[in-house]
Amino acid sequence: MAASSSDQLLEELRECLGRVKEGLRPIRDGNEHLVPFCEALECVFRDGLKQPGSLFGLNKRDYWDWVEQLPNYIYNEKQNPFLMQTITSVKNSLKMRTSAGRGRCFIRLGLMKKILSVPVDYLLKNRKLTDYWYSRESIIGNAALAANFMSLLFEVTEVDFELAYKNASFLDESWILPIYVSLELPSVEDFGMVVCHVENRAIVTCVGPDSLAHRVHIEAGDCIDAVNDQCVYTANTKVSKLLDQSKEKLHLSVIKAKLTDGTPFAPLARRMLFLESYGTGSELLSNVVTVNSPTVRSAAPENAQLSLCTERVYQLVYLGKMEVDEGCGDALIASAVQQVLTGGDKPTSTALTVTDSVVTVQCTDGRKKVIGKYEYPEISDCSVTLSPDTCFGMIVRQLKTASVQYECLVFETPSPEMAKDVSLHVSQGINRTVWFVDLPASDVACSTSNETVE
Which of 51, 42, 142 is nearest to 100 (CA)? Predict the structure, then answer.
């Protein structure tokens, strides 16, 4: 009889564990057998996983979802303190936004603390809970296969793992982790790097010669992960403002663009390629404007390479637009989104750029046609829909020949987290409109320029 897929997954896990045990101890990041072993563990955890509470499959569940809820079902026996601490640490981490990322972080911490068998054991003791999350044909849902899995997990405790907890920012996207560098630097007026936000990541697009960034080996394509231990990914603020908060010394965490073998780290390479194709990579310097500050101008070179770009660029799908009544509100946007979704318009890949003063929607095909460029006084609202939660709408004002018309532009994002992030930053720009419009013309020009760190 041919082996089932579940049996094959267990056999693959057993082989990966054997290769891990044969290597040097302890196991650290960079070990050639670590990633295949973790991927095999993840495949077992996902085998036969059901999607309870997922409306039409829109909110896809992962194994982390049941691990996170496990403490609520442990009644009659003492909770394992190491498991509880690990679950709390993963829940509170700002490095990940998805269940997949948090699940991978939990596996890494579980390997270090030797507790991966504990949550599985708790789950198996509750048959109703096991059936709620797993099919009877799965490894965890089948008693015999689950016993074999538990045996392997106990065997895993014989191996010591020393993994970098802080290097978790890209677990949402990949098991392969980049080089993570922590720097302690003096606080200076200018760091000499151009940074552009792409999908919530602060990507270094250019480094000035003989600058501080150059001297500490920061390169184009690197990612600024944290400033003074504040994660840039979830800070919802500009890198420049985080840098300004440092008075004497600055702690900077940088994710390198290349792996130890010199190959590009795929998630960063993809973002850098998008910037270059969009015209904000090597061409970005020609568009940089230095803030009108005598102190900064005296320290910066004439070519203004020491400026810091603060625009955010998102890769989205433009679904279409719908004419709406004047006003704002979630209900108005939700109605427009549903009409666009049922209208059958051809989706268009676009780049949505959010800066201090304007939101630009541009096609990413060969023509790079600009669909619209809207200053914040022309935008009345922006919000995410509940279903689907990956879509959002933005109500803009269009000046026609004899009247003013309002339209709701509808976009789809790769994830609910990105939809919320875009909506958040556009809404922040709308909320700044009152004071922004009241500024004198000279100050407005300064506020809308790319920002230099002072």
Answer: 42
